[in-house]
Amino acid sequence: MAVHWKLVVDCAEPLSLVDFWAEALGYEVEDHTVLIERLLAAGAVTDELYTVVDGRKAWRTLAAVRHPDDPVEAASGMGLGRRLLFQRVPEPKQVKNRLHMDLHFGPEHREAEVKRLEGLGASVLQVVVEPGTNHVVMADPEGNEFCVQ
Known about the structure:
By secondary structure, the chain is of the alpha+beta class. 21% of the residues lie in helices and 32% in strands. The chain contains 3 helices and 10 strands. The strands form 3 sheets. The chain has a 4-stranded mixed β-sheet, covered by helices on one side. Strand 3 (50-53) and strand 4 (56-59) form a beta hairpin. The longest helix is centred in the N-terminal third of the chain and has 12 residues, at 14-25. This is VOC family protein.
């Protein structure tokens, strides 16, 4: 049986990173309004746990993006397919990532996509030209590494 999974990224500011990655990937920011309102009505959460962003309720310490073609659970607003969850942690990033994403745009689009991502707040760390691979190592606005192929 296949396992349903999501990639979780520890960060300082999930609401900022979710906007970066939604634009970077062409994904949608999840809307957790329905879930938050249901939990508020049940008395399970309090007002200080959420904020309002672009007219939707959002958790202060968690935010997610999902692929626009994947299904969504109506009761929670959570994506049921390709999904990245960003969670606030107290400690800053210390070392190089042990896991990273590769964004495959193709060699003909690489340079334009690197520029676009820089415009969103990413930075170029290294250009790699080696036998068998040409790619750009970048960092998102909080320093999490990813590669543009």
